[in-house]
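Quick log. Single chain, no ligands specified.
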Amino acid sequence: MNEVKEALRNIEQNYKLFLQQQFTFIGALQRTRENAHDTIRPVASVGQVQSYMDHHCNNSTDRRILNMFLNICNDLSKLCHKLETVHSGNNVTNGILERCKLLLSHSNDLSTIRAKYPHDVVNHLSCDEAKNHYGGVVSLIPIVLDCMKEWVTHTEKLPRHVLYNTSGGSAISEKRARQDAPARAAISQTPPSVHPEAQTSTSNKDGVQAQGSMHVRKKNLNDTENHSGKLKGPWKPPGRHAF
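-> predicted structure:
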């Protein structure tokens, strides 16, 4: 997003330089239209300006200012494509981008669009120029710039995870990673499983130990009983005894 804002600021700076030369731009259009014998119809598309510069421009000043206009339009078109890679899109932002791309299309008719307050580009034209010739073409760049600023405003209000990761990842992969995190945590908390053979071996070993303990207790008990049996009855001296 910071790259988008920086690119937008650079385009705005170039446009400010262009705006200071609007009279030069209008003069260049007027001369190239006369050279093309095309003074009746309005300048209604970017492609028309391109054609004037390529085929009907006779001096470097006119070529420079016409080329400046076309370069700004080209930079705006590139920025539109960049915005599509930064954000996955919703109804509002997609609608804004579609309008920008339509306005910047070389064949789109610009004759009916007009930049409104706070822009005053149309006010610097005569009534005839604004209505019949240049009102649309001078309004193109400020309108597109406003649309892109609106796109940035809407995008910054969206949750952060909706934005694409410009380093190569995407919002989808980030979302999937968060969804998989609980499952990974549950797996890490599950005790390690014991092989059935190991369980059987352990059980047998425990059984043998238990049997051994019972045998020892039984032997000790018998020894105790035998010993106590020998002690039964009164003591008699050795030798014969009458019954």
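Residues 49 and 66 are 7 Å apart (CA to CA).
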